[in-house]
């Protein structure tokens, strides 16, 4: 993985995850049910605020979208935490345990259990931060599935890597045309456009009707 090659794509994926989750929770009344009630004591008045839940959702999805790449020493997080990154890379390699869906499931369960012992309104705040963390992290795994190296979705039960092509490309080799699969390769216009198109399509489906 070249320096920062997938960083911006994963950030865009985190923003996409935030947008889709925000729209879904609003459309289905989840944002209303679990919004944060702000009390203005001197005026004896309270109002329902979407700002704080959406802010937490955005911040956590944005930053967790690059967290799995802490297992690579030359990634942004890898350089920030070199000892952790080097250990993870030595033990599991790149796109190893930090990229397994079962790891995300385990982290999600831990966040949920911690939230259960909290009292209101902190539980609501923790819930939105946790949702943001999970969807941002999930966006990273999904995007890396579109990478040529793929992701081992069924680990630890199977080492088979799932990789989904995003198109085809024709290469010339010794005067002959050869068709090959096209995967995401990082900070390229093609890659970012795919993410934007997917986001627009899903937003259309979520808001339809």
Short note summarizing the structure:
The chain has 209 residues and is mainly α. Helices cover 55% and strands 11% of the residues. The strands form two sheets. The protein has a two-stranded antiparallel sheet with strand order 1-2. Strands 3-4 form a two-stranded antiparallel ribbon.
Q: What share of residues are in beta strands?
A: 5-15%
Shape: globular
Gap between N and C termini, in Å?
42 Å
| Percent range of helical residues | 40-55%
Mean pLDDT: 82
Name the poorly predicted regions.
40-47
What can be said about the biggest beta sheet? 2 strands, antiparallel
Structural class by secondary-structure content: mainly alpha
Structural domain tally: 1
How many E-type strands?
Answer: 4
Tell me the quaternary state.
Answer: single chain
Radius of gyration: 20 Å
- N-to-C SSE string, H for helix and E for strand: HHEEHHHHHEEH
Instruction: Please give the order of strands in the largest beta sheet.
Output: 1-2
Protein name: Membrane-bound metal-dependent hydrolase
Organism: Coprobacillus cateniformis
Transmembrane segments: 12-30, 50-70, 97-119, 125-143, 191-207
Pfam families: YdjM
Top keywords for this entry?
two-stranded antiparallel ribbon, 8 helices, transmembrane, mainly alpha, 209 residues, transmembrane helix
Summarize the structure in words.
This protein is mainly alpha-helical and 209 residues long. It has one domain. It is 55% helix and 11% strand. It is built from 8 helices and 4 strands. It has helices spanning 7-27, 30-33, 51-64, 76-80, 82-92, 101-116, 122-145, 189-207; strands spanning 36-40, 45-49, 167-173, 176-182. Helix 1 packs antiparallel against helix 3, helix 3 (51-64) runs parallel beside helix 7 and helix 6 (101-116) runs antiparallel to helix 7 (122-145). The longest helix has 24 residues, at 122-145. The radius of gyration is 20 Å and the shape is globular. 27% of the residues are buried. The model is unreliable at 40-47 (pLDDT under 50).
